[in-house]
Specification:
binds iron/sulfur cluster; 681 residues; 21 helices; alpha/beta; single chain
């Protein structure tokens, strides 16, 4: 399935998709309402006091909708008591019952809460991971059975004025859907559409939709496809965005920002949940920041007329890396082609303070084990700064693969031509110059100078300039030694749109020139704080582009600490599944079904296994949903019963009821048996 399907007003400007508003209690979701923040309790639902306490704490922290699991009828009944106590505390936050398998639990819960969440993959549908063949007749028969099983809760929601989320998760699809569409974004979308059509057949439309996955690329494609398919069927339901099983700490925030932020940049999303394997209270500020940034962007673009469609050659529903030529960055490090994106790190020290730069680089290399800085970016503000470069090069050229010299406007070609460049490691030098439209001839001379010297040439310009005189000058020269980048967005575009436009212009003039994604102060709304701004905005800009297949190198220039900027760059590349440098953890956020302390167990597992490059480990709280939702993990650690763990290889359970105290050692044994273990350095 590809491009003729539209899914947003513009991929170059942030125009909000106006969906059909749904009322969840007194909270309007969708339409022109603000993006609503939601979260989920992690207490045992039948522990009414604890659940009420956590609900009130979430509401106090700014959570606008609170979800509570209802795994069985007793838990669903407890929702009645929870609701009464929450209202008695003068809190009117809407409550949502999270239902998976049991229609009976749904029918009870709907009496007490403002909204029901149904997972089409397991609500009254079969999921036994069986490979079954469905003929058309058998498929339709199942659909009719589903119609009968799902209709009662739809009619009850309609009668009581309750909203409903049809929430599909990757890896949690019914056998019937898997058989026809595979475990794919298309399968997720079609599964939800079947349920929507049943709801609509009863004239019920208070619906919200979600398409979550732990892999942001899958999640982004699924939501886009959902909108495109809804448009085809004249549906306009609200979207609840989330990356599921994102894990904890920086990695989880990065993954959530990539998935949720990319879609918000596209103008999609009415309510969001950031899933963290942490106290749910910590989800709220992350979600708030993401929502505020998106709404600020939408506001900025509200009054700007939609520009004429810029050509867009990217298929937003299927990942494909933009084809680029290989360029030798230095000391055996290439960028472009099939090479994983390189990490360039900017030092914020001036070049005349060489000692701190050296200390910083060495400390960063130590911290990062095998993840090294590939390009060290240093500002050369004035011609006299060039004098310091020789000693910097001498000290670091065996540690740093390449130097990127960011030339100030005072430094011109004559300074570069008269400078005595170091003799070794010249291939590891890239000169970076900001080029304005009127400097087209200079751009060509600059590229030629770099080629003559054996340097690479990074040109920082906007798409319009590249489409105009600069493109005219560069086109006949081809893309040899040329890297393109953009340090600030062009007018009326957001940074992601600005890079997308640059990639399109590059395709027309210098088709295979690699693109370097620069996260600069000008490319962000506000880079003040690390967690609220620098981490989120770098993840959104870089992640959105990497998930589009754009980007051969990245730099986080808003982060002044070299080690932190390097780690963040690697974490973003890992989050976008563009470059795997450590173990990937898929951890559920926990809920009332959880059978062990997810936060401490996740920390323990991480402390012994986080050096396993290329291995994905899922840590899931229960066997009800865990095995289905751990999607593409290599190994799974899943709560099987109280104090007992089931261990999985892929989707197959290979050890049942392992005592919790031994389970981590047995998991490591399994990783060893499958040849994926390496001893930590
Ligand atoms: S996998 Fe985790 S979050 Fe999902 S239902 Fe089980 S315990 Fe709850």
């Amino acid at each position: 399935m590809s491009s003729p399907l539209d899914y947003c007003a513009s991929r170059f400007q942030a125009k909000r998709r106006i969906s059909r508003e749904v009322l969840v209690g007194g909270v309007g979701v969708g339409g022109t309402n603000p993006i609503r923040i939601q979260s989920m309790t992690t207490t045992n639902t039948q522990d009414v006091e604890a659940t009420v306490k956590q609900t009130l704490a979430l509401a106090e922290a700014g959570c606008e909708i609170v979800r509570i699991t209802a795994p069985n009828k007793k838990a669903a009944e407890a929702l009645g008591e929870i609701s009464k106590k929450v209202r008695a505390a003068k809190c009117d936050v809407p409550l949502v019952a999270d239902i998976h398998f049991l229609p009976s639990a749904a029918m009870e819960a709907v009496k007490h809460v403002e909204k029901i969440r149904i997972n089409p993959g397991n609500y009254a549908d079969k999921k036994k991971f069986a490979v079954l063949e469905y003929t058309d007749a058998a498929y339709n028969e199942e659909l009719e059975r589903l119609h009968e099983a799902f209709s009662p809760i739809v009619l009850r929601c309609k009668e009581l004025g309750r909203a409903m989320r049809i929430g599909t998760n990757h890896g949690s699809l019914s056998d019937r859907i898997m058989n026809r569409f595979g475990d794919s974004p298309l399968g997720m979308v079609e599964s939800a559409l079947e349920f929507i059509r049943i709801a609509e057949s009863h004239n019920y439309q208070d619906i919200c939709l979600s398409m979550k996955a732990s892999n942001p690329k899958v999640m982004i494609e699924a939501y886009r496809l959902a909108v495109a398919r809804m448009d085809q069927e004249a549906m306009n339901y609200t979207l609840h965005l989330g990356v599921t099983e994102a894990g904890d700490g920086e990695d989880a925030r990065v993954k959530s920002a990539i998935g949720i932020g990319t879609l918000l940049n596209d103008g999609l999303g009415d309510t969001i949940r950031v899933s963290l394997t942490e106290d749910p209270i910590y989800e709220i500020p992350v979600a708030r920041d993401l929502a505020d940034k998106a709404m600020a962007l939408w506001k900025q673009h509200e009054d700007i007329e939609l520009s004429e469609t810029t050509k867009d050659s990217i298929d937003p529903f299927t990942f494909q890396k933009r084809s680029t030529r290989v360029i030798e960055l230095g000391n055996g490090c290439n960028i472009g082609g099939e090479t994983v994106p390189a990490v360039i790190v900017k030092t914020h020290h001036s070049i005349d303070a060489i000692a701190p730069i050296i200390q910083e680089v060495c400390a960063a290399q130590m911290d990062l084990k095998d993840s090294k800085i590939e390009g060290l970016q240093v500002a050369i503000q004035h011609p006299e700064d060039l004098a310091h470069f020789a000693s910097l090069h001498e000290a670091l050229h065996t540690v740093v693969k390449a130097f990127v010299l960011e030339l100030g406007t005072d430094v011109d070609l004559s300074d570069l031509e008269t400078y005595e460049w170091p003799e070794d490691g010249l291939a590891g030098i890239t000169l970076l110059q900001h080029i304005a439209q009127e400097d087209a001839f200079y751009a060509a001379s600059f590229l030629q100078f770099c080629r003559d010297k054996g340097f690479n040439c990074a040109i920082d310009c906007n798409a319009d300039a590249l489409r105009d005189e600069i493109g005219v000058q560069l086109q006949p020269m081809g893309s040899e030694n040329l890297i393109l980048t953009r340090s600030s967005p062009a007018d009326a575009r957001h940074p992601v749109g600005s890079y997308r436009a640059l990639a399109e212009a590059a395709n027309d003039f210098v088709p295979d020139a690699p693109i370097w994604i620069r996260n600069t102060a000008e490319n962000t709304l506000d880079p003040k704080s690390y967690f609220s701004d620098r981490l989120l905005e770098s993840s959104i800009l870089s992640g959105a582009l990497l998930c589009d297949g754009i980007g051969d190198a990245i730099s986080i220039e808003t982060e002044p600490q070299l080690a932190k900027a390097t780690t963040l760059a690697y974490n973003i590349l890992q989050g976008a599944r563009s470059r795997i440098s450590k173990t990937e953890f898929v951890a559920c956020p926990s809920c009332g079904r959880t059978l062990f302390d997810l936060q401490s167990v996740t920390r323990k597992i991480r402390s012994r296994t986080d050096h396993l490059k290329g291995v994905t480990i899922a840590i899931m709280g229960c066997i009800v949903n865990g095995p289905g939702e751990m999607a593409d993990a290599d190994f799974g650690y899943v709560g099987g019963a109280p104090a007992k763990i089931n261990l999985y290889v892929g989707k197959e359970c290979v050890k049942y009821n392992v005592p919790a105290a031994e389970a981590l050692d047995r998991l490591i044994d399994l990783i060893k048996e499958h040849g994926k273990w390496v001893e930590p350095a």
